[in-house]
Amino acid sequence: MSRPLATAGWSLAAFLSMGVAIYSYRYLPQVGPMADGVLANLFARPWLMVHAGGAATALLLGPFQFLPALRRRAPRVHRYAGRAYAVACLVGGVSGLVLAMGTTAGTIAAVGFGLLAPAWIYTTAQGWLTARARRFDEHRRWMIRSFALTFAAVTLRLYLPIGIMAGLTFEQIYVATAWISWIPNLLVVELWMRRGTLFRPLAAA
Ligand code: HEM
Q1: Domain span at residue 127?
Q2: 96 C-alpha to ligand 1 centroid (Å)
Q3: What is the dihedral of CA 177, 178, 180, 186, to 10 degrees?
Q4: Burial of 89 (0-12, 13-18, 19+ CB in 10 A)
Q5: Distance 190 CA to ligand 1 centre (A)
Q6: CA–CA separation, 166 and 173 (whole Å)
């Protein structure tokens, strides 16, 4: 990928992540507009606050961990922020799993969110373990997967208005986002990471 394209992609992802994260913190003091359907979650208290706090923190920290300049110039900042990111994912993931079981959006949504949570915890745990084992190439790959899942919070909020504009009801698009907010994200980063090996045979032919 060319440098200007990578910078533009990172800037857009960071901007959207920070916007969703800062807006989501409203669930902690419970101020501002909050979705009635989500407040009706069987386990909203206290798990919605725990979830919003953990997940939003992961979304806020994540983009900066991918900046090569930060890793080079301030490796200690990268290490501490990385630990905070991993703990935030764990808190967001465990509470996300509890919320998945209490959603009022039905079984299909519950299973979609319920699979996202362990996938998020697993990819982040692998990222942490490979960093501790100093297997940095694998660490980079696991953290890209982890953030692709963290970014589900952004893609979910992009698909909701798109689905409404496409003529779906809020309930229909909400159930669909429990799946499409994260599976395509994982596929995109997986293909992007494999592009070298995928396209090499073609280049050699
Ligand atoms: C990636 C793993 C995640 C899982 C498994 C997950 C799961 C869930 C579930 C099940 C709900 C309740 C939905 C309902 O009752 O219908 C919820 C709500 C919520 N989640 Fe997550 N979530 C994840 C990531 C995130 C991230 C990264 C953020 C970052 C800000 C976030 C912020 C929120 C907020 C603010 C709500 C309240 C609903 C709203 O206002 O849109 N979640 N989440």
Answers
A1: 3-204
A2: 6
A3: 140
A4: buried
A5: 23
A6: 10
CA–CA dist 89, 59 (Å, integer):
9
* Element containing residue 169 per DSSP (H, E): none
CB 89 within 8 A of CB 54: yes
* Cα 46 to Cα 24: distance, rounded to the nearest angstrom: 15
Q: Which residue CA neighbors atom 19 of ligand 1 most closely?
A: 52
pLDDT digits (tens, 9 = 90+) for 83-115: 999 999 999 999 999 999 999 999 999 999 999
User: In the chain, how many domains are there?
Assistant: 1
Pure H helices in 40-74: 44-65, 68-73
Q: Which atom of ligand 1 is nearest to the CA of 113?
A: 5
Show pLDDT as tens, one digit a residue, over the chain (205 residues): 678 898 999 999 999 999 999 999 999 999 999 999 999 999 999 999 999 999 999 999 999 999 999 999 999 999 999 999 999 999 999 999 999 999 999 999 999 999 999 999 999 999 999 999 999 999 999 999 999 999 999 999 999 999 999 999 999 999 999 999 999 999 999 999 998 665 555 444 4
Q: Which tokens belong to 73?
A: 């110039």
